[in-house]
Amino acid sequence: MKTNASPCKSTFSTPVMRRFLIAACAGLLLTAFGGLAAAQSSPGPITPTLRQRVEEPQQDSIRVKVNLVSMPVVVHNGKGALVLDLDKNDFRIFDNNVQQRVEDFDIGSAPISLAIVVETSSRIEPLLPAIRKTGILFTQTVIGADGDAAVIGYNDQVDKLLDFTSDEDAVENTVKNLQKGTDGAKLYDALGEAVSELKKRPEARRRVIITLAEAVDTGSEDKLGQVLQDAQLANITIYSVGLSTTSAKARGPEKGGGPPAATPPGTFGLPKAPGTVETPDTDALRSGNVDLLALAVWAVQHVTATIRERPLEVADIATGGLYQTAVRDSAIEPAIDAIGGELHAQYTLTYRPTDAGDSGYHEIKVDVSRPGTRGLKVRTRPGYYLAEAK
Q1: CA–CA dist 269, 276 (Å, integer)
Q2: Single pTM value for the model
Q3: CB within 8 A of 318, min separation 6: which ones?
Q4: What is the pLDDT of residue 58?
Q5: What is the CA radius of gyration of the chain?
Q6: Which domains are seen in the chain, by residue range?
Q7: Do residues 241 and 333 lie in contact, with contact meaning Cβ atoms separated by under 8 Å?
Q8: What is the pLDDT of residues 107-140, one digit of tens each?
């Protein structure tokens, strides 16, 4: 007589239930062996403590650090002549009042990568014939035998007319064939493009921008302060030849200076402009009494601010360059020639900041300590700004 199947066997007699039983048993076996392996193997990764998470940042964190600072330094004597006989030990550099060790020293021999930024606005059309003649000055006086150059034109758009090349004919022909554009003037966007292109050049080269332009910007997306902050961190020096300064002032809101402040330092004689934070700089801007060095530092620290007063001079001061006015056509070539002469008599000092990771504005001071050199005038950039790590 047959006996009935056991309840357990009956329960798992269907195919579905048999698959369920097999899966359950496999899970139990994996759990058992997994626990045994964990007990016998070396420990795996440990979840970081809060202290470890602070001290060991995630891979996607951003830390701003400057490894080397390269400084253009120009020295004049009391009569305005360039001083060319100084050596490395004659200079002292201070970064945030801490003396630094000069690692590299050069005078005018490092090759130059030059970005030529030219306004092609219809407003300066009468000056274009004079500008078209300057190509040979850029190749022979500025970049020299080992240099290279790019050409950027701008009006209401920015056009990269020539990429970096050592072909002198290409540079001269590009400048010779500059064409008139619209009446816009996206100066800051053009400078930003020049900075972006120069950042790609080898660090061993001196990175230089020479701008031929009015001191006017219309419609740029870039802010001058951000462009200058980037230029400082990339060791880029900006020189400017100011075109049609007199007519530009007649068209725009620029002021060439003003009377002394009528209120004590630290107080403001004008009501606060709507939507602005009152600072000595904004008050000076509205009164016309502009400290360009202070404005250059302020622009780099406040990269979202709008800078309208004398932007070319601010750019030059912020990066250690030189501004020259070319009111007449005949003044353009001598201005470029003077810039070339200075570049080939320029000292370049390089140092590694001792507090390279400290965020905020780093003030730079350079002086000459050689005996018998009193009365010398030293020009370099005033500093650089490091954003906080994110």
Answers
A1: 15
A2: 0.73
A3: 228, 231, 232, 238, 296, 297, 299, 300, 381, 382
A4: 39
A5: 32
A6: 69-105+348-386 (no CATH), 110-255+290-344 (3.40.50.410)
A7: no
A8: 988 999 999 999 999 989 999 999 999 999 999 9
